[in-house]
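COURSE: Structural Biology Practicum
ASSIGNMENT: Worksheet 4, Part C
STUDENT ID: 0417
INSTRUCTIONS: Below are two proteins. For each, the amino acid sequence is given first, followed by its structure token string. Answer the questions at the end about the second protein only.

PROTEIN I
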Amino acid sequence: MNLHYQVDGQGEAIILIHGLFGSADNLGLLARSLKDKYKVISIDLRNHGRSPHSDTFTYREMAADVLKVIDLCDIERFSLIGHSMGGKVAMAMTELAAPRFNHLIVLDMAPVHYHVHRHQNVFAGLREVARHTVGKRSEAETHLAKHVLEPGVRQFLLKSFAKTDSGYNWRFNVEGLIANYDTIMGWQEVPEFTGKTLFVKGQESEYILPEHRESIARQFPSAKAHMVANTGHWLHAEKPETVNRIILNFLQSA
């Protein structure tokens, strides 16, 4: 599994990992804020962006994919920043390479198994688009809107709708994501990681809740937490300056 990635800047290495349905570009505002002081590596996870597709999709496999990129770049120590599903990939990497971490920053995700199916409408919309021959993005949005009502969510998804040799298509592996959705929402606990860790929560998001504190403390006993007011799950897009400042402060002070 040879992931697609891009490198910006020089200095200590920071790896950025996007969430479900995303790509390396999703954390672009954060990458731009960090690249003046750090070497920033933005990764497309398997089944996303320009990376290869696969039928298997476990967090351990995705963590190993990312570690392979880090090794290819000849990087020994690094910091990891992951949003949502990418946060779980980052947390899973602590089991494979704990001594090599400088910092772990998890954006709005807990190390737990989620039991609420949050993406049924998205999958229905993606399949709706796939059922039609589409010649431009506006046509894709029309089909997508039958199931995905929020314009912002549609625009986010359409960032991964690209022209190929055989016409327009989704860059992510729609059927592979659907088949592995229980695994994506699930979680296998990792051994205790005592490195420098920060969880950043969107105040209005339901991905980190009070009932998750015990699981976080058990697996990441040294973790600190920061809440970003008046933001949801996409906190880094809703308040980029605030989130970027929180991250920079943690990287420089911890």
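PROTEIN II
(use this one for the questions)
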Amino acid sequence: MNILETIKQHKIKEVAKQKAIYPIKLLEQSIFFESPCVSFSEYVGDPNRSGIIAEFKRKSPSKGDINKYADPEDVTIGYMQAGAAALSILTDEHFFGAKKGDLSTARRFNYCPILRKDFIVDEYQIIEAKSLGADAILLIAKMISVSEIDNFTALAHQLGMEVLLETHTEAEVLNHSDSKADAFGINNRNLSTFEVSVENSIRLAAMLPKSKLKIAESGIDSIATIKQLKANGFDGFLIGEYFMKHSNPAAKCKELINQLLKV
């Protein structure tokens, strides 16, 4: 069993427990549930913004601890002050070290689009995302079926959220070419092996639907790489580890964005 399948099986069990503890009726009572969402695609696709989706995460299965004691309030406020277009918040506790309040803390202190980054296998998690204050959710093509992605996307839209559909292979892009997702992501990390190659985004760029926001994910660590991705049609750049592995992630984000503004 590869790591993605291990995560999926764990997530299914985790969600079943969450349903028992926090039924949907309770999630719907959240102070964030009726709040209007901030448009992920408008902010990230705005040519006057940086296109940087700055990610908050403490660890990963491939790297172990990255920034174990990072504070979501300090880091996310710093990201937005640095000029990030949006935030991505990892909410998986077991594999990525998230804490329950991470996304809601980011929501309380920032007016910007917030992407819930997790391994979504159940409609419950989409309702939960809205209750936490998310504006958008990530769906992973490798993890769930075409029909599940269609149904999950419809539910997210019903709740006012947008969807970033993550793909990694040519087949995944082709299988979802008619998707109603608001943005298409190309993950440069192979979720089976965790090997990373930015060339993957460049190779698949021309296949992405022309009307959709295009996001490159993983392995982005220089202005040269961002310039190359922009030249191949990408609008947004999801960056996590490059920022989070530093003692001051927001300062590293500001350094990159300042360089980007000079280009």
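ANSWER KEY EXCERPT:
Q1: The beta strands are 52-56, 59-60, 64-65, 86-90, 114-117, 136-140, 162-167, 183-187, 213-217, 236-239.
Q2: The CA atoms of residues 73 and 105 lie 6 Å apart.
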